Amino acid sequence: MTGPERAERAARAELAEQAEQAERAAQLVTSDVDVALDRLRAGGLVAIPTETVYGLAADAEQPDAVRRIFEIKRRPSDHPLIVHLADPAMLADWAATIPEPAVVLAHTCWPGPLTLLLDRSGRVPDVVTGGRGTVGIRVPAHPLTSRLLSRFGGGLAAPSANLFGRVSPTTALHVVEDLGGRLDPRRDVILDGGPCPIGVESTIVDCTVDPPQVLRPGGIASEDIEQLLGMPIDAAQGPSRASGMLASHYAPSCAVHLVPPDGDIADAIRAARQHSRSVEVLDLTDDLVRYARELYERLRAADARGVDVVVARLPAAAGLGHAIRDRLLKAARRADPSPAR
Ligand code: TXA
Ligand code: MG
Fold first, then answer.
1. Looking at the chain, which terminus has fewer C-beta neighbours within 10 angstroms, N or C?
2. Residue 242 has pLDDT above 70, yes or no
3. Which ligand has its closest atom nearest to the C-alpha of 250?
4. Quick one: which H or E segment has residue 205?
5. How far is the CA of 18 from the centre of ligand 1 (A)?
């Protein structure tokens, strides 16, 4: 086959893929909360918009529906799911004990990008927590999902709506790209609430230990949590107790080369260009809110364009910078196993 023939065949394949995706989106995506509610009650799955990232939700009390989340995401069954609730007042139904720090955080941060790890109540089925004695709970802040949760009345078990180990989705289209071919349009639906305003996952705070620990930095800065609790809190040390916090989570296909906050990015770009054909730069350190909001979209777009290397600047380890650094470090480790990075 000649070069032009190969190029034409590739272009045709891409067009066919785009047409297939548009067809899947037409079948799966809705912004009708009533449709989403019906699907959940019938044991189907609903991709839900949240202020952080899109989740793939099922009625937490229908074990078969929850099992399908693991299958569709290709997620190991020992990686527990967060239970999403409509209202902080519902916490007492789902947690066995609620220590004082959890009461303070629930009332000041919810609805919002915070997940509390607590001892689970008898209402939480084994399949949700992988048999663990603890459960992650959060009250998300997105108008469509809040409405859905209030009308649903129960808990929604939901991980991020991406394939296991991939970058989380921040638009309904990302969910179509990752899971569109695996969801069943007769049973499942993707609720489109627009792009997620925060763009990185919730902060997970383990309230089963004293003092509480941050297991995953996220949309609420650990400094804010310390201030609310009036005490210093540690980031978890050693092998994480939040399973699923693998070193290589949140990975795009392209290599990610990191530049320290005060490093020379021009140098890093030059070095990357010596070995790679297409290099892109990601540096939004002067606006961390935007950096978080656009991070996953930019990594996905680089993958879609077949970029070899993204050279990304790490923000300083403060505020929202903690979460952005965490995701970038994980993306870099997975994409490029070189110990130097
Ligand atoms: O912002 C978010 O938190 C998003 C939205 C959809 O709510 N959800 C999310 O879920 O990021 P997921 O499953 O992708 O990440 C939750 C993390 C996983 O690493 C999981 O293993 C951990 O929290 N986790 C959940 N419940 C746990 C538990 N009982 N014990 C330890 N780790 C837990
Ligand atoms: Mg996830």
1. N
2. no
3. 2
4. strand 203-206
5. 31
The model's pTM is: 0.93
Tokens of 216: 């995953």
Q: Taking residues 208-234, report their average pLDDT.
A: 94
Integer Cα distance of 160 and 174 in angstroms = 11
What CA dihedral angle connects 173, 179, 181 and 184, to 10 degrees? -100
* Residue 246: predicted pLDDT: 53
pLDDT at position 335: 46
Nearest of 89, 50, 102, 87 to residue 229 by alpha carbon: 102
Ligand showing the shortest atom-to-Cα distance for residue 167: 2
Strand order in the sheet with 309-313: 255-259, 309-313, 279-282
| Ligand 1 atom having least distance to the Cα of 134 | 29
Identity of the residue numbered 188: D
CB 118 within 8 A of CB 134: yes
Ligand 1 centroid to Cα of residue 156, in Å, is: 13
